[in-house]
Amino acid sequence: MYNPFSLEGKTILVTGAGGGIGRATAVACSKMGAVLVITDINPETLTETLSLLEADGDRKHLMFVADLTKEEDLNEMVAAMPSLDGVVCNAGISKVLPIQFLNAEDMNRIMAINAFAPMYMTQRLYKKRCINKGGSIVYTVSISGVSMVSMGGVMYAVSKNALDAFMRNAALEFAGRNIRVNSVNPSRVKTPLIQNSVYSEEEVAKDLQTYPLKRYAEPEEIANSIIFLLSDAASYITGHALIVDGGKTLS
Amino acid sequence: MEIKEFIQNFAEQFEDTDASVFTPDTVFHDLDEWGSLIGLSIIAMIDDEYGVTIKGDELRTAKTVADVFELVKSKK
Question: Taking a C-beta distance cutoff of 8 angstroms, is the pair A91, A118 a contact?
């Protein structure tokens, strides 16, 4: 059957695969026929994701428990990395703080995980030629910082905006090796990152009204957008930030 | 921790509402100036000053400044 969205025969690395969008992406990629290399800082949630991946006789998925902000972990992982056709940089954290309360500790942590870790991982994978020609890199960025800002969201916005700039630079520089680089920019997604938050239920209900589709995304809906960018169906798309926001940025 | 000092820290998050308005019984959600940024600032102030994390829903359920004070105290 004709299916340009298939990931059969592709090996794909997913970071932050222990939960949220990362887990949903890893699972969806496995259903589309890919071999997965998954990584996360948390061994329990990562092992759980591994058990959720669809596998058959020939496909052996790999997992690396790693803190990607640590150089030793990163080097160790890259040294053991098989040839990749796709990379999904998804690991991310958030903390809501008004600018008055900014501090170096929180800022450095968020920048390290959301921006610098994916940048250095990309750099190493590219330099070591771990990514095959025709490969695709996808960053989970956000509409936050790129298309809009919200009260208290400055650290997250700044980190995601940095990643957005990196994505476009990488698209330009990696084109010579026919490696495409894009991002998905979701609005709020039903993940642990937004549950348990400083926003009250009342504020969430009000916020939902600002979405034309009147709901937050399911992680699987972001995963499907990532699959599109990983697949050969997107073979002429590079340097693009795909907004996946239920219409949030329309108004 | 003292409620007097807590009220002072609480009042500092407001721009237009005079500090003298704030007492333990102040129903802060009813203040004209109350809004999401001040709510986030109160949460950040409590984290900074008292090392306690409170959730948006907890702040919403609290009626008076004293309620928030008791909440923080219970989590210390």
Answer: yes
Stated as kind and residue range, the H or E segment containing A134 is: strand A131-140
- Within-domain flag for A47: yes
Domain assignment of residue A143, given as a range: 11-242
Name the residue of chain A whose CA is nearest to B55's CA. A198
Residue numbers in chain B where pLDDT is lower than 70:
none
Residue B76 burial class via C-beta count within 10 angstroms: exposed 0-12, middle 13-18, buried 19 and up = exposed
CATH number of this structure's domain B3-75, picked from the four choices 1.10.1200.10, 3.40.50.720, 3.90.1150.10, 2.102.10.10: 1.10.1200.10
Q: Which residues of A are part of the catalytic machinery?
A: 156
pLDDT at A194: 59
CA distance A34 to A44: 23
Note whether A198 contacts B43, CB cutoff 8 Å: yes
Is the full-model pTM beyond 0.80?
yes
